[in-house]
Design a protein that fits this description.
Elements: H1 2-6, E1 10-15, E2 22-25, E3 31-33, E4 37-38, H2 45-77, H3 84-113
Antiparallel strand pairs: 1-2, 2-3, 3-4
Helix pairs in contact: 2-3
Bound molecules: zinc ion.
Length: 114
């Protein structure tokens, strides 16, 4: 912390959401935690919600893409344990998830701009 102050950083009243150490604002305007590095400061609960929602949607999107890939390979290999029809049903369900996730992400992006 003393190094940060010597470098001209300013201690903020906000604290790190992870370790609750005080945050510092660098001359470059970047806000960092002495332990965790760069931190995103949010101004409202809504903003926190939209960031955590986006992170959770990102995770879900990855899961869906992985599942779709796995099912696609099963179809291509022609030796699926579930049987082709069941694989296609599962694919349909995952594609629905993926579509909704992407739609929600677009909605969130739009609502942030306003
Ligand atoms: Zn921290």
């Amino acid at each position: 912390m003393s190094e940060l102050l010597r470098a001209g950083a300013v201690m903020l009243s906000e604290s790190c959401p992870i370790c609750s150490l005080p945050l510092f604002k660098l001359r470059s305007g970047e806000v960092i935690c002495p332990t965790h590095g760069r931190v995103q400061i949010v101004k409202s609960d809504d903003e926190v919600l939209s960031i955590t929602t986006t992170a959770s949607l990102d995770g879900l999107e990855r899961v869906a893409v992985n599942a779709i890939n796995k099912l696609r390979m099963e179809l291509e290999g022609g030796n699926s344990e579930l049987g082709d029809l069941n694989v296609i049903r599962a694919l349909d369900a995952w594609l629905n998830v993926l579509e909704r996730v992407r739609r929600l992400k677009i909605i969130i992006k739009h609502s942030e701009k306003v």
